[in-house]
Amino acid sequence: IQGIKILVENAVELIKQGKTRQEIVEEIEKIKGNIVIEFVPPSLEPLKRGGRIGKMSALLGSVLKIKPIIRFKDNVLTCAKKVIGFPKAIASMVANIPETCKKLYLIYVHSKEYLKPLKDALTKKFSHLNLVEENISSTVGIHVGVGCVGVTYQI
After folding, report:
1. Cα(110)–Cα(136) distance, rounded to whole angstroms?
2. Interatomic CA distance for residues 133 and 152, integer angstroms
3. Which of 109, 91, 95 minimizes the C-alpha distance to 43?
4. CA 8 to CA 5: how far, in whole Å?
5. Tell me, what's the pLDDT at 63?
6. Which pLDDT value is given to residue 17?
């Protein structure tokens, strides 16, 4: 949803600049490939229940405190990285965001419990950007679990 929001915001800016309909469509098509959504679920349980990972992977991952950084880019959902511990997962996710990103949203699923470390790290790195917190829809949230946090950004 936040990816669509970025596209709409860009379209509004282009309209204000007086761009033609064709120019707006062409620019939005370019921007689509520059939107990234990344998130870290606090638990592997929802991924296991949804069949995204197997029972053994979930068990080992939970015991070892492995946190996947899940990335959605170009309509493809991938595990960008696996990190031991939630603080390291947050640090890794923030480190991967280019300093030149144009728009940045903090995303969370129904609970801001794990949002503070992410917000603090992003505020430190991107003091020039207005960070907006957005609750992910239930449709997406059901797959990653309550407390999942992440970012949506435009490169």
Report:
1. 7
2. 10
3. 109
4. 5
5. 93
6. 96
At position 97, the amino acid (one-letter code) is I
- B/e letters for 90-115, b = 16+ CB within 10 Å, e = fewer, are bebbbeebeeebebbbbbbbeeeebb
Tokens of 15: 């309209």
**Does an H or E element contain 147, and which?**
none
Mean pLDDT computed over every residue of the chain: 90
CA distances from 95 to 120, 125, 145 (A): 13, 9, 24
Contact present, 120 and 155 (Cβ < 8 Å) = no
In whole angstroms, what is the distance from residue 91 CA to residue 96 CA? 9
Phi, psi (rounded to 5 degrees) for 33? -75, -5
C-alpha 76/C-alpha 32 separation (Å) is 13
